[in-house]
C-alpha cells in the first residue's frame, strides 16, 4: 500500500470511526517505503528494502486507555483492531494523565515530500556505493558507508473530528574513509528530503581528503583550546541541549533549567546574546511535519532569543496543569549564524583546533548538561589562519551551555541531521585526555 | 506484521536519560502472550519448504528462522502506571548462499506460498549481489543436530504472571522510595520471550524458547533551595530468567562494603528502591572528589559495563576486520597483535572468557542463530589476547575450525550477524572478599552501579562514571563522593588490575539493549565478574557550574 493519498487515508480512518464504540478514539495511520545499502572494505555488505503500512488505534473509556495495531486493511481487520483496543482499554488501569482527544485543528501544508526520493531504485543505491568505493580505491583508501532512504505518509483522525495528513521523504548518507596504512580517517554526513540535492560523489571526496590530511597525526597536550566545531561536530551537543528543554522536568526541579529556590529559567539569559535558536516546519532547507503525533499543530517557535530562553516543550497534560498552551517538540532546530564560511573562520584563527565530528557522546551530569565524548575522523591544529597539521583525537568534557557562553564566532549554517547549525568557534573548550584511536 | 518504534524514557536518570527502547511488533492482548500459533511439527514442514526451494533454485546453503517475539514492558512513576505494552511479532526470515554470496528475505506470511516467495527473493538478491561481491562466503563446517530443543531454565514464566501483580510490585517499590525521601521515582519492567525455530541445509531443526527480564528504576531527590538534584539507579541486573528473579530471596543477597546489599540471582526491588532514596539524599551533601590517581575498587554491577566496552566490543571480529568502520568503529585489538601470541591485554591475573552457556545470563541459548551449539572459550588468558568472537563465515580468518556460536538477529526480519556473547572476568582463585579488598586499600574509591560511559571508536580511551562512589582511606570507607569519573586506556587499565575477589562475590551485570550494525539491531548480553581492584587510575572531577 505504501504511500496513500489523503483521501485513501481518510477512507481507512473513517472506517475506524464507524466501528468505534469507545468514549473516544484516536487513530494513526502511517506507511513507509524505503531501502538501504551498506558497504565496507570497499565492497557492498548488505542491502535491503522495507515497505510497511500500520494502523494504530487508541480507544479510551474514561481514563482507561489502550492501543492496538494492525497492518491489514480489509473491513474485518479494521474492525478487529478497533475491538481489540476497546477490550484492552476496559481492562487497563486508569491513566490519570490521559487527555481527551483534541478538536479539529488547522495545519500548514507540509513541504517535506519529494517524488524523486520516493523513486529511488536499487541501481541508484549501488551507484552511491560506487561513488565512494571507486575514488577511495584509486587513492589507497577503504570506504565504509551507509545510505538509507524512506518516503511515506502519516495521517490521523479522532472522535472529536480532527483529521491530519502529511507526506514526507528523507535520505541519510554517511561514509567513513580510512587510509590503508591505518593512520588516517575521514567522514562525512549528508541528509536531504529531495534526493536530487544529494551529491554523494562530492561528499565522498570530502571524506577522502580528510582521510589523507589526517594521516600521521601529532599528539598535543589536552587542555582548554579554542575550537572550530564543524556543523556535524556541534550538532550533537546542541541537540542534547535541545532535547532537554522539557518544561515538566524543569518544573519538577530535575533539569538544567530548574532554578535555585524553585521555578524555571524560562525568560532568563542563559547563553551568549548572539545565540538565536528557533524551529520552523516550513523552513525550505529543512522542512518537517506541521503536526505532532497527538494532533497538535507545529508552528514556528523561538527557543533562544539573544541568549534568553523563550520557550520550553509542554505536552498537553503538563500544559493543562500549568495553565499554558502546549508546545510540541519540533522536527529539528535552526541556529542562526553569520556569513563566514568555514575557510574564512579558519583564516581568522591564530591558534585553534578544527573538529570534524564528535563521537560517543554521553551525559555525565544532567544538572549542568555536562557531556563527554571524543573527536573523530579529522582533527587538525590551526596556526596563523591555516591548518598546520593533524592532531590525535581528544576526549572532551563540556557542557553546551558553557560552550555557548564561550562563543567567539559563528559561520554560515548548514543542514545536518535535520537541523541547521553554523560552524562554531568556541574558546576554552575542555579536552581532558588523548586518544590513540584513528 | 512489524512495527519499529522507540519509547524514549525521559527522566530515567543519567545513564538511561535518553534510552531508546526498540519495540518490535504489534500491540496484543496480554493473554495472547501465552498463545502458541504453530507447533514444532508444523514449523518443520514450513522450514523444509524454504530449504527445498532454496536448494532447487541454486543455493548452496540455506537457513530459515520462524520466530515469534513477545515483549511486555511496564512503566510507572510515583503512584501512577504510565504505560503497559504487550507486543507480538511473528514471521520467517530466510538466508541463503548462492554464487558465493549471502541473500536474505523475510515475510510475515508464514504459509507455504509466502515462504516460497521469500526464499526466491533471497536467492535472487544473493545472485544479484554476487556480481559485485569481492570476497566469496566461506563457512566453517557445523554438525547437523537433527531435531533438538532448548529452553531458558525458568521457574516462573513472566508472561504468565498477572500484570496487576507486576504493577503492584513496582508501585510498592515507588511508595517505599517516596516514604524514604525520594521526590520522584520512575520504574520500568521489561520482559522478553523469543520463540525461535531454526532449520538449515546442514540438517538441524532447532526449537528454542528464550526468556529475559529487566527491572530498573531511577530515584530522584531534589534540593529546591540550592536548585540541585541527584539520581540513583537500580542495582538490579537484566537476566536470562523468569519472574523468579523478582522474588528477592535472602540467599541471593550479599553484604557488601559500606552497608550495601548486592544481589546475585534474585532481586528485591522494594528493598533496593528504599535504600536508593536514602542514598540519593546522602549524595546531595556528599563531598566533591579531589581529582588525581586512585586505586579503584569496582563492584561487578559497575565493572560489567567496563568489560562490555573495553573487552567485549574490541574483540568482535567483524569490527576488527572493518565491517563496522562507518558506525561503531574498528578495534585496536588487531589481528597482528593477536598473532604475536604475547599481546598483553591485561595483567597476569586477567582471564576473560566468552560464554553462551552461563545459566541465568542474557546470552545463554542452546544454539545460535545459525545453528551452532553454544560453548565457552577464552578471549584473554593470563593477560594475553588469545581469541576473538567469530561466526561461521569468519572463523577461518582466525584459524578456527568451528564457529564460536555467537550469531544473532534481533527478530525474524533482521539478518543475523556476529553479536557479543557473554564476556566475563574469571574470579580470583584464593579466598578474598570485597570487605578484604577495602581493608587493603590506602587511597581509593569504591564504585558501584552503572553511570555515564564513553569510549573511542577503536576502544583505546574511555571514561566511566558510576551510580555510587565511596572514598576509601587507609582500609576504611570514609564517606560518599560526588562528581567522579575515571579515564584510562584499555590496555593500561587492564594491566593495572592487581586483585580479583573470589567466586563467592561473582555476579552478573547486563546490557539489555546493546546496539550494533546499520540498520541498528539490539541484543542482550551479560558480563560476570567479582569485585576487582585497579591501581593508580586517573580520576577527574566532573562538577561544573552553569
Automatic annotation (TrEMBL), chain A:
Belongs to the peptidase U62 family. Residues 107-214 form the Metalloprotease TldD/E central domain. Transmembrane segments: none annotated. Residues 222-432 form the Metalloprotease TldD/E C-terminal domain. Residues 34-89 form the Metalloprotease TldD/E N-terminal domain. It holds the Pfam family PmbA_TldD_2nd. It comes from the Bacteria. InterPro entries: Metalloprtase-TldD/E_C (IPR045569), Metalloprtase-TldD/E_cen_dom (IPR045570), Metalloprtase-TldD/E_N (IPR002510), TldD/PmbA_N (IPR035068), TldD/PmbA_sf (IPR036059). SUPFAM superfamilies: Putative modulator of DNA gyrase, PmbA/TldD. Gene3D superfamilies: PmbA/TldD superfamily. PANTHER family: CONSERVED PROTEIN, TLDD PROTEIN. This is TldD/PmbA family protein.
Automatic annotation (TrEMBL), chain B:
Residues 62-126 form the Metalloprotease TldD/E N-terminal domain. It comes from the Bacteria. Keywords: Hydrolase, Metalloprotease, Protease. Residues 291-538 form the Metalloprotease TldD/E C-terminal domain. It holds the Pfam family PmbA_TldD_1st. Belongs to the peptidase U62 family. This is TldD/PmbA family protein. It comes from Shiella aurantiaca.
Amino acid at each position: 500500500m505504501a504511500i496513500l493519498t489523503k483521501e485513501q487515508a481518510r477512507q481507512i480512518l473513517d472506517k475506524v470511526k464507524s466501528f468505534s464504540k469507545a468514549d473516544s478514539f484516536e487513530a494513526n495511520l502511517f506507511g513507509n517505503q524505503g531501502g538501504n545499502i551498506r558497504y565496507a572494505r570497499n565492497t557492498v555488505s548488505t542491502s535491503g528494502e522495507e515497505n510497511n503500512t500500520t494502523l494504530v488505534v487508541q480507544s479510551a473509556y474514561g481514563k482507561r486507555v489502550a492501543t492496538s495495531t494492525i497492518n491489514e486493511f480489509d473491513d474485518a481487520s479494521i474492525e478487529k483492531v478497533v475491538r481489540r483496543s476497546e477490550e484492552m482499554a476496559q481492562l487497563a488501569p486508569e491513566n490519570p494523565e490521559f487527555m481527551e482527544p483534541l478538536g479539529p485543528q488547522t495545519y500548514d501544508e507540509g513541504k517535506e515530500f519529494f517524488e524523486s526520493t520516493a523513486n529511488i531504485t536499487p541501481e541508484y543505491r549501488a551507484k552511491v556505493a560506487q561513488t565512494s568505493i571507486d575514488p577511495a580505491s584509486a587513492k589507497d583508501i577503504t570506504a565504509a558507508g551507509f545510505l538509507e532512504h524512506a518516503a511515506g505518509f502519516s495521517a490521523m483522525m479522532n472522535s472529536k473530528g480532527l483529521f491530519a495528513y502529511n507526506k514526507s521523504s528523507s535520505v541519510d548518507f554517511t561514509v567513513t574513509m580510512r587510509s590503508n596504512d591505518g593512520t588516517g580517517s575521514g567522514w562525512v554526513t549528508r541528509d536531504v528530503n529531495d534526493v536530487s540535492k544529494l551529491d554523494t560523489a562530492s561528499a565522498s571526496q570530502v571524506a577522502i581528503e580528510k582521510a589523507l590530511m589526517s594521516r600521521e597525526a601529532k599528539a598535543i597536550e589536552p587542555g582548554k583550546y579554542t575550537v572550530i566545531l564543524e556543523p556535524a561536530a556541534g550538532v550533537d551537543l546542541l541537540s542534547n541541549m535541545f532535547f532537554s528543554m522539557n518544561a515538566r522536568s524543569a518544573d519538577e526541579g530535575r533539569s538544567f533549567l530548574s532554578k535555585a529556590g524553585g521555578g524555571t529559567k524560562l525568560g532568563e539569559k542563559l547563553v551568549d546574546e548572539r545565540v538565536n535558536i528557533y524551529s520552523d516546519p516550513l523552513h525550505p532547507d529543512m522542512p518537517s511535519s506541521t503536526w505532532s503525533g497527538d494532533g497538535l499543530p507545529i508552528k514556528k517557535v523561538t527557543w533562544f532569543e539573544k541568549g534568553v530562553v523563550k520557550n520550553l516543550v509542554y505536552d498537553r497534560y503538563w500544559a493543562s496543569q500549568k495553565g499554558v498552551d502546549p508546545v510540541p517538540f519540533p522536527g529539528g532546530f535552526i541556529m542562526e549564524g553569520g556569513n563566514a564560511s568555514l575557510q574564512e573562520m579558519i583564516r581568522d584563527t591564530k591558534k585553534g583546533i578544527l573538529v570534524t565530528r564528535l563521537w560517543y557522546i554521553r551525559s555525565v551530569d544532567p544538572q549542568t548538561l555536562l557531556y563527554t565524548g571524543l573527536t573523530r575522523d579529522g582533527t587538525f591544529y590551526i596556526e596563523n589562519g591555516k591548518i598546520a597539521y593533524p592532531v590525535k583525537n581528544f576526549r572532551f568534557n563540556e557542557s553546551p551551555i558553557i560552550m555557548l557562553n564561550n562563543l567567539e564566532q559563528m559561520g554560515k549554517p548548514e543542514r545536518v541531521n535535520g537541523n541547521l547549525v553554523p560552524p562554531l568557534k568556541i574558546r576554552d573548550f575542555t579536552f581532558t585526555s588523548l586518544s590513540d584511536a584513528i | 506484521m512489524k512495527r519499529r518504534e522507540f519509547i524514549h524514557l525521559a527522566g530515567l536518570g543519567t545513564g538511561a536519560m535518553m534510552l531508546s527502547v526498540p519495540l518490535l511488533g504489534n500491540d496484543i492482548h496480554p493473554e495472547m502472550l501465552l498463545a502458541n500459533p504453530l507447533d514444532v511439527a508444523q514449523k518443520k514442514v514450513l522450514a523444509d519448504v524454504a530449504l527445498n526451494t532454496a536448494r532447487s533454485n541454486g543455493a548452496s546453503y540455506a537457513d530459515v528462522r520462524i520466530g515469534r517475539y513477545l515483549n511486555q514492558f511496564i512503566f510507572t512513576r510515583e503512584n501512577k502506571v504510565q504505560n503497559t505494552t504487550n507486543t507480538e511479532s511473528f514471521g520467517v526470515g530466510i538466508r541463503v548462499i548462492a554464487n558465493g554470496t549471502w541473500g536474505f528475505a523475510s515475510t510475515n506470511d508464514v504459509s507455504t506460498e509466502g515462504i516460497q516467495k521469500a526464499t526466491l527473493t533471497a536467492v535472487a538478491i544473493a545472485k544479484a549481489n554476487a556480481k559485485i561481491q569481492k570476497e566469496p562466503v566461506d563457512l566453517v563446517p557445523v554438525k547437523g543436530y537433527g531435531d533438538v530443543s532448548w529452553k531458558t531454565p525458568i521457574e516462573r514464566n513472566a508472561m504468565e504472571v498477572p500484570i496487576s501483580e507486576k504493577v503492584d510490585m513496582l508501585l510498592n517499590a515507588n511508595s517505599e522510595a517516596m516514604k524514604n525521601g525520594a521526590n520522584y521515582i520512575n520504574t520500568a519492567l521489561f520482559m522478553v520471550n523469543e520463540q525461535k525455530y531454526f532449520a538449515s541445509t546442514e540438517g538441524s531443526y532447532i526449537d528454542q524458547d528464550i526468556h529475559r527480564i529487566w527491572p530498573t528504576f531511577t530515584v530522584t531527590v531534589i534540593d529546591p533551595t540550592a536548585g540541585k538534584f541527584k539520581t540513583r539507579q537500580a542495582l538490579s541486573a537484566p537476566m536470562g530468567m523468569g519472574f523468579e528473579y523478582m522474588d528477592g530471596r535472602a540467599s541471593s543477597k550479599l553484604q557488601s562494603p559500606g552497608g550495601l546489599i548486592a544481589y546475585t540471582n534474585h532481586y528485591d526491588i522494594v528493598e533496593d528502591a528504599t535504600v536508593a532514596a536514602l542514598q540519593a539524599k546522602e549524595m546531595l551533601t556528599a563531598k566533591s572528589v579531589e581529582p588525581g590517581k586512585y586505586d579503584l575498587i569496582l563492584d561487578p554491577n559497575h565493572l560489567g559495563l567496563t568489560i562490555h566496552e573495553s573487552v567485549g566490543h574490541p574483540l568482535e571480529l567483524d569490527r576488527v576486520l572493518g565491517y563496522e568502520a562507518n558506525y561503531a568503529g574498528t578495534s585496536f585489538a588487531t589481528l597482528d597483535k593477536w598473532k604475536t601470541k604475547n599481546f598483553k591485554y591485561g595483567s597476569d591475573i586477567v582471564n576473560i572468557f566468552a560464554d553462551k552457556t552461563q545459566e541465568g545470563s542474557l546470552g545463554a541459548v542452546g544454539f545460535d542463530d545459525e545453528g551452532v551449539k553454544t560453548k565457552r572459550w577464552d578471549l584473554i588468558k593470563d593477560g594475553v589476547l588469545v581469541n576473538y568472537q567469530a561466526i561461521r563465515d569468519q572463523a577461518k580468518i582466525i584459524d578456527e575450525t568451528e564457529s564460536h556460536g555467537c550469531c544473532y538477529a534481533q527478530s525474524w526480519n533482521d539478518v543475523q550477524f556476529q553479536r557479543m556473547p557473554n564476556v566475563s572476568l574469571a574470579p580470583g582463585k584464593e579466598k578474598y572478599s570485597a570487605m578484604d579488598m577495602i581493608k587493603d586499600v590506602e587511597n581509593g574509591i569504591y564504585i558501584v552501579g552503572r553511570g555515564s560511559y564513553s569510549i573511542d571508536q577503536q576502544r583505546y580511551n574511555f571514561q566511566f562514571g558510576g551510580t555510587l562512589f565511596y572514598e576509601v582511606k587507609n582500609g576504611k570507607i570514609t564517606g560518599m563522593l560526588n562528581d567522579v569519573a575515571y579515564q584510562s586506556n584499555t590496555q593500561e587499565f587492564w594491566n593495572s588490575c592487581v586483585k580479583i575477589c573470589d567466586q563467592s562475590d561473582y555476579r552478573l551485570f547486563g546490557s539489555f539493549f546493546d546496539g550494533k550494525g546499520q540498520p541498528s539491531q539490539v541484543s542482550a548480553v551479560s558480563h560476570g565478574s567479582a569485585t576487582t581492584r585497579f591501581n593508580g587510575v586517573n580520576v577527574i572531577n566532573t562538577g561544573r557550574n552553569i
